[in-house]
Specification:
6 helices; single chain; Rossmann fold; 28% strand; 219 residues; 33% helix; alpha/beta; 6-stranded mixed β-sheet; 4-stranded antiparallel β-sheet
Length: 219
């Protein structure tokens, strides 16, 4: 079992009001899965992805990844664990505007430290079809190309898990389908576990398994 989530609850405090984002969520995910988290805006999809990605800590419950309980880790340990095992694709791309495509893809490796494997970087950029754009900056790319850069950046560390938060939300339908096709291809050829969220029911048909979420609970 790659990921085990047991009775996870996540709440936020807004002024003096407790806002529940996740309530008693339990699920298991195997290595190589391609999973869709399906639900309307505000259902808790992004919060669950952030908890799975070690970006946020659950208020209660446990998240075990590769047999390690992430709640037992401090911030520094979580950062190292996330950098080595988890890639994240944000719906707003989160690219660094002053860096070109190659530099944006290299960024997680630079954070890790040590010598950067340039051949690995170029291979990943080629795998997402951007080998002719390596010296372009984000503002010189289309939305679909920026999302491909974000995918390459998530892939470059060779993570066990890639989490994609509404990866087609800012793209037209045709480009969005191409991006999901690319994720399916990478899942099949590389065996990487993908978990993506969407409120678009048509995209859920690409998944091995669809997990519904509504009002912070699994449906």
């Amino acid at each position: 079992m790659l990921i085990s989530v047991l009775n996870v609850t996540k709440t936020y405090m807004m002024d003096k009001v407790i806002i529940p984002a996740l309530t008693d969520v339990s699920l298991e995910i195997d290595s190589g899965d391609f999973i869709c988290l399906m639900g309307p805006s505000g259902a808790g999809k992004s919060t669950l992805l952030h908890v799975l990605g070690c970006i946020e800590t659950p208020t209660s419950g446990d998240v075990c990844i590769r047999g390690e309980n992430t709640r037992a880790m401090n911030d520094a340990s979580l950062s190292r664990f996330r950098n080595r095992h988890i890639g994240f694709i944000f719906q707003n791309f989160n690219l660094v505007s002053v860096l070109n495509v190659r530099e944006n893809v290299e960024y997680p490796l630079a954070i890790r430290g040590g010598k950067i494997d340039r051949s690995r970087v170029e291979s990943v950029i080629e795998s997402v079809g951007l080998v002719d754009y390596m010296n372009h900056r984000p503002d010189e790319l289309s939305g679909g190309q920026r999302q491909r850069v974000a995918i390459a950046r998530a892939l470059v560390t060779n993570p066990d898990i890639i989490l994609a938060d509404e990866p087609t939300a800012n793209l037209d339908s045709k480009t969005g389908e191409k991006i999901i096709d690319l994720l399916v291809h990478l899942n099949r050829d590389c065996g990487t576990t993908f978990i993506f969220s969407t409120h678009n029911e048509a995209l859920s048909h690409y998944a091995h398994r669809t997990i519904g979420i509504l009002d912070g609970r699994l449906a």
